[in-house]
Amino acid sequence: MSFVGKLDLFKLPDLLQIISGNRKTGRLILTRRDSQGVIVFRSGNIIYAASSAARETLGSLLLCRQLIDEEQLARALEIQHQATDEQRLGTILVKSKLLSEEALREVITRQIEGVITEFMQWESGFFKFDLLRLPERGEIEVDAEDFVHREGLSTQRVLLDIAAELDRTAVYPVPVQAAETGTGPAPEASDDGRSGLHSLKSIMSLIRSPEFTGEVTGQILRFARESLPRGALFVVRRQSFRAMSVFGVSGGSPSGTAAAKRLRLPFDQPSVVAEAADRQECYRGLLEHNEANRALLAALGDEMPTEVVAIPLVVNDLVLLVLYGDNGATGEPIGEIDQLELLMLQAGLAMERHLLRKRLETLERRKSS
Predict the structure, then answer these.
(1) Is 352:316 a contact under the CB 8 Å cutoff?
(2) Residue 368 belongs to some domain of the structure
(3) Which of 37, 56, 111, 112 would bridge 30 by S-S if both were Cys, CB 3.0 to 4.6 A apart?
(4) DSSP letter at 173?
(5) Looking at the structure, do residues 165 and 303 belong to the same domain, yes or no?
(6) What is the distance between the alpha carbons of residues 273 and 275, in angstroms, rounded to a whole number?
């Protein structure tokens, strides 16, 4: 799978959280007119970052931090040169007891964060994410192997550290008003009359808003209608999945829509919605024949789909919503749903941040009272 786009539509922090949240292993390539960079992930954790900008070597960084001296560096480089197999400079220094493992990890971490901080300040450019097959542990082939973090860094922790540093130095790029307030210009129409990526950009701005409201749910549903011929948005209520909104119902009659909205799928019965919620990941494939799925089809119009999708919205490891869609109304292939997955993940992350802010505000009020 390749995921490509522009950085003025998908901001880097959002991309990093998407890759991390889905525990992907791969390479994110960033390019603009005068620069290029790469970030490598293993199971959602960052293990390497580099840019085309000139960078110091590990040896010079250790010298600048006064963690080793010139003589110790020369000794380690001599060992590295004479070794019959390739060895990292940092590994040699640790094995020679010239440097602690903790100090080495700290230097590599700060180097990775420094590179990503540089990327965070890009206001335009392009990205491409490719899945890779990497061993669960051990070495990978990159330009500067000395700066590979063996264990991997929590992406969320890296973003928090960078945000704190950028706030401290006041160089963090100020987001546009729409990203802060959820207001801004209406989505522009694409050439074919559909809102497409412009609609997606508007929705992403709303999701970054401090308040996640029913308006955002409506925006997501409107975008879902462009990608899915028929579907429903389920909310988790009282040990069941309750249809809160439907679209593409056979005939489009108000009575049919009202009947679909009365649909309830129990937790304890197998269904495509329950499967997506249980796995906490997107399901795409055939619809199994079982009682709950038959009830779902009956509510939406009975046409048997050849392909279905179900995308959960997860907040703090709890599924709050599940978006279901199929091609039963047309029989045509559904097509790409990456953007829908992105929206659901972003919405969940935004809600998590909102809940965290509310908890912190409550704690502050308690302390001050």
Answers:
(1) yes
(2) no
(3) 37
(4) P
(5) no
(6) 5
Residues 6+ apart with CB under 8 A from 11: none
Whether residue 311 is contained in a domain is answered as yes
CB 25 within 8 A of CB 43: yes
CB atoms within 10 A of CB 47: 22
Q: Are 150 and 91 in contact (CB under 8 A)?
A: no
- pLDDT tens by residue, 50-94: 888 756 788 888 988 889 888 998 998 889 888 887 788 888 999
Contact (Cβ atoms closer than 8 angstroms) between residue 215 and residue 193:
no
Closest alpha carbon to 118 in 49, 45, 64, 44: 49
Mean residue pLDDT of the chain comes to: 78
| Integer Cα distance of 220 and 230 in angstroms | 14
Record the tokens describing residue 367, joined without a space.
Answer: 């302390």
Tally of domains in the chain = 2
Distance CA 17, CA 316 (A): 14
CA distance 317 to 3: 25
Q: What does the alpha-carbon distance between residue 215 and residue 207 come to, in Å, rounded to a whole number?
A: 10
Same domain as 82, residue 144 = yes
Phi, psi at 314, each rounded to 5°: -110, 130
Domain containing 132: what range? 2-169
**Token couple for 36:** 């290029």
- Number of neighbouring beta carbons within 10 Å of residue 148: 22
Phi then psi for residue 199, to 5 deg, are: -65, -40
Residue given tokens 């389920």 in the structure block: 234
> Minimum mean pLDDT among 153-162, 179-188, 213-222: which range?
179-188
Which secondary structure element, helix H or strand E, spans residue 270, and what is its range?
none
